[in-house]
Amino acid sequence: MNLEITKAIKTLLNVPQKIVIIPHKNPDGDAIGSTLGLWHYLKNKGQDATIIVPNDFPKFLKWMPGTEQIIIFEKDASTARQLINKATVIFTLDFNHLGRIGQLQPLLEDASATFVMIDHHQEPDDYAKITYSDVSMSSTCEMVYNVIEGLNDTECITSELAISLYTGIMTDTGSFKYSSTTSRTHTVVAKLIEKGAKNTEAHNKVYDTNTPSRLHLLGCALKNMVILEEFNTAFITLSQEELDAYEYKKGDTEGFVNYGLTLEGIVFAVIFIENKEEGIIKISFRSEGDFSVNEFARAHFNGGGHTNAAGGRSDVSLEDTTTLFKSLLPQYKADLNA
């Protein structure tokens, strides 16, 4: 984090502000953890801050301190609009394009507040006055820690703040196994544990709260897995009918895509999930090595993200989407077999 960004944020926070903090639609552990971490910090500094999320988030994240204060736009649009209209500063966390926030997009496009972006995804937009973008970071939570440290305010890190950032780092690094996990990441995590983050509690509450229906859904997903050995690729499909049969709840499919990469020789794993309410197929891409799923998602499925983890979408049927996907693989055969 460079000195210029630190100075700009410090200047902004030297006076009382009305602050709104916003993560991307369908927020994950890093999105919720980073917004909560920043919210705790700003409140500890005496700022008037509120978190607004575009839509609801998984139950396995709702144990974190402060989640009960989060405003969900789809449930309380009126309050959210008022807060955004009155905001003097808007922090956008864990996304870098306003198209990632669903129905909140037009409200932010019309907002008069000063925007601050903190994000680690590739190819950021230029909507923010202050942009802290670093694709080498493990998570947005690690970046929020860097902001607090850069402002010489680590003494403001409470146990509530620490567990929020720890949880986001843990989930976005695949429990510290992804290549984005650096020695610096472990240093930050160690400092968060020293500040009161209970690491075992975080693991248990995120990963060990399965319902029988979720495990049955996982079984269905694994049964549906297709392995394309010629392309070192595996993909999973889940139809709306299958989701309904296993009483799908938001967050239930989290991590399913990673099972493909546990197979020997597989370097590209994908899950296609039908969402009839939105009329789309939601897609998650994962890879190992140098194969860029970010570039693949951007080129073919209206998405993007990181080199080894990205998302996308399709507006055609589940069958047509997988047919298109399979038709694309031959042109990437050399890369997938490198």
UniProtKB/TrEMBL annotation:
<protein>
    <submittedName>
        <fullName>Bifunctional oligoribonuclease/PAP phosphatase NrnA</fullName>
    </submittedName>
</protein>
<feature type="domain" description="DHHA1">
    <location>
        <begin position="248"/>
        <end position="315"/>
    </location>
</feature>
<feature type="domain" description="DDH">
    <location>
        <begin position="18"/>
        <end position="169"/>
    </location>
</feature>
<dbReference type="Pfam" id="PF02272">
    <property type="entry name" value="DHHA1"/>
</dbReference>
<dbReference type="InterPro" id="IPR038763">
    <property type="entry name" value="DHH_sf"/>
</dbReference>
<dbReference type="InterPro" id="IPR051319">
    <property type="entry name" value="Oligoribo/pAp-PDE_c-di-AMP_PDE"/>
</dbReference>
<dbReference type="InterPro" id="IPR001667">
    <property type="entry name" value="DDH_dom"/>
</dbReference>
<dbReference type="Pfam" id="PF01368">
    <property type="entry name" value="DHH"/>
</dbReference>
<dbReference type="InterPro" id="IPR003156">
    <property type="entry name" value="DHHA1_dom"/>
</dbReference>
